[in-house]
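Example record

The entry below shows one chain as it appears in the dataset: sequence first, then structure tokens.
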Amino acid sequence: MGIGDKMKNAAESAKGKVKEKTGDATDNEDLQAEGQAEKSVADLKQAGEKTKDAFKD
């Protein structure tokens, strides 16, 4: 996994977390759900890349 991919996934996760927290604060369930989904996708990508990295070593 390249450093660019790691940064991109971390940024996506952070963006999702911000959306989720904003949805919480404004009682906007759609925004909250969208943030949770984005964060989950980014976290899964990170986990998959870490698994690939583990098998490279």
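Notes for this example: The chain is about 90% helix and 0% strand. The radius of gyration is 13 Å.
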